[in-house]
Amino acid sequence: MRVLLTNDDGIDAEGLRLLRAELLRTEGVDLVVIAPDGNRSAIGRGITTRRALGVQRIEFGDGGHGYATDGTPVDCVRLAGLGLVEGWEPDLVVAGINHGSNLGDDVTYSGTVAAAMEGIVLGLPAIAVSQQSLKREMDFRLGLEFSFAAAARFTARVVEELEVVPLPPGTLLNINVPANEPSGVEVARLGRRIYRDQLRPEGDAPEDGPRRYFIYGEQAGFEDEPGTDLAAVAAGRIAVTPMHLDLTHHDGIGPLSASDLHRLLAPAEDEVQG
């Protein structure tokens, strides 16, 4: 199986390095690494369209190599799918291991999950894997300590047995691993975040030029609902969530179709009598 490994923390990130080592030990895996040349956390599904992408071959020090780009995580998957490596196209996209959880509403911001989503856009199965910090923080802030061993082992086993894991077409697996040794695995739905962002000025107001602000606040909380990924990780279990790209609210199609939207095509009447 030809596996593309990418991330949003950068090609030098420890999470990617340890997952790479585990995948190289997995029988039947033909691995290629294409990752950003620096941190691209929380960039979502951004792509680069207005300039050429820079790509550089990177030696890993164990005889292997990968490719670093100044683009986004999604760009990395597109580079692989469009033939950056001559004679090689991926059968599977693996994104991670992310430094920090990607749970609940976080997935809409995550470059890790976005890379996996691009896999399913290309018709490929995909896995996004993220690791909670050792302080058991439930978000993806930087500057924390992590242990990636359990996440790397579990992800490699999923890749090894992907043919027997029921993964419908157009579906990715979003995997979140708790701190320390997991107590189990739970298939869970996405939960709901409670964000505590604040608008905080940086320094004093300048005499000229723009005023600068921070908009990231304290650690996000969550609604502790059974069956969610947030609750599973909080309880020390690996959360595995199947996701897809169909954002349609299907139950809303009927009521909306019953409304008279055609009337909106008519010009508004002039209410001012002259």
Layout: helices, strands, pairs:
Layout: E1 2-6, H1 14-24, E2 30-36, E3 55-59, E4 65-69, H2 73-81, E5 92-99, H3 111-121, E6 126-131, H4 149-160, E7 172-177, E8 185-187, E9 193-194, E10 200-201, E11 213-214, E12 221-222, H5 229-234, E13 238-243, H6 253-258
Parallel strand pairs: 1-2, 1-5, 2-4, 5-6, 6-7, 8-13
Antiparallel strand pairs: 3-4, 7-13, 9-12, 10-11
- Label the CATH architecture: 3-Layer(aba) Sandwich
**Count, helices:** 6
Strand order of the largest sheet: 3-4-2-1-5-6-7-13-8
Note the beta-strand portion: 15-25%
State the CATH superfamily name: Survival protein SurE-like phosphatase/nucleotidase
Describe the protein in words:
This protein is of the alpha/beta class. It has a single domain (2-192, 225-245), classed as Stationary-phase Survival Protein Sure Homolog, Chain: A (3-Layer(aba) Sandwich), CATH 3.40.1210. Helix content is 20%, strand content 22%. The protein has six helices and 13 strands. A nine-stranded mixed β-sheet has the order 3-4-2-1-5-6-7-13-8, with helices on both faces. A two-stranded antiparallel sheet has the order 9-12. Helix 2 (73-81) packs parallel to helix 3 (111-121). The protein starts with a strand and ends in a 16-residue tail after the last helix.
